[in-house]
Amino acid sequence: MTWHPALIIAFLTGLIASGHISTNIYAPSLPSMVEFFGTDAASVQMTISIYMASFAAGQLIYGPLSDRFGRRSVLLGGLAIFVITTVMIIVAPSIVLSVDLVIWGRGLQALGACSGPVVARAIMRDLYSREETAKVMAYIALAMGLAPAFAPVLGGYLEVWFDWRASFGVVLVFAVAVFLVALKMPETNKHRATNAAERPITLITNYGMLLKSRAYWGFVSVGSLVFGGMFAFMVGAPFVVIEVLGYSPSSYGWLSVSGIAGYVAGSWVSSRISDRVGVDRMVPIGVTLVGAGGVVFLVLGVLGFLSIYSLFGPLALMAFGMAIIFPSTLAGSVSVFPRIAGAASALYGFIQMLTAAVTISIVGLLTDGTHMPMVWVVSVVMIGAFVVAMIGGPGRGKRHPAPIPGE
Fold first, then answer.
1. Is residue 401 part of a domain?
2. pLDDT attached to residue 368
3. CATH code, domain with 252
């Protein structure tokens, strides 16, 4: 790749953000969407959970395709789908006022949006070593923390000034911009010719090899549980803050900055020490902070404390730990078998997003008008990540397998 290193990081940041921005920016609009469509909270929350499930499944397609045919062509196809379906989501309610159309549109949107993160993670492994990948990912997380910090703020004001569709208008502009930059992207897959010579079934069976790897599972299980807990909070918090505590959508957007601030701080720490401490030792550090935040969150909830401080205080601590965990679990997972980094990235993303879809659905099913369903789900998942990491997560024993032929 002939691009300047800073431009590479900026581009990778945009690719990863392209898959997640449409879940973040319209969070303040979730309660008002219930009224807009004349439906219930569970149906509106389904627009996020189906996005997660579809996002997860789509990555399983893009990963092997990018290993076989190259990163660039696969990425461009996925981003094109992302742009077209975002337009459909914005236009559909003007034709038929049905939340079901938005739900299915979100599922299709995710099939395109997921190409960004899965290909970006594979590109990182194409260009960098295991420890360098963790450091670069920490820098990307630091940069990404700033945009998501203000996405809910912007979404809150767009909800007040217009309605939920304005947030998707911003998503559309972002998707088009990333697509135009991707047109200039050179190919980074050094193993494309080798992989293309293999039978198509081989690239699929690579998933089986990854699933049998204890080293791979050590990274993926911890990263996925923490990711699921984060999204459980993101879906449940707007209803608690806006409907139970009585804050406005724009106020919720500003309150969510506390979590992003913790994430940015954790990303900064990770970018400074990850190459010296090492991937295997970074994960236990981060998961300890996440587990501690989950315990505090649960204790405050069970004791009946409910305020913006009991919600967003523990969130900041958990977000700090997340920022330390995510770069290392990603770097570790795609480094187990470097030649099939696309498949490893796709499976990592699939399990991660599927976990998020499950936790979001559980929060929706348990909704009872209080904050406790969200508290229980978030706390149990975060504490569970700590337990998994301590029992058999990254760094627990010598489990890194020999490389597959050709690596």
1. no
2. 79
3. 1.20.1250.20
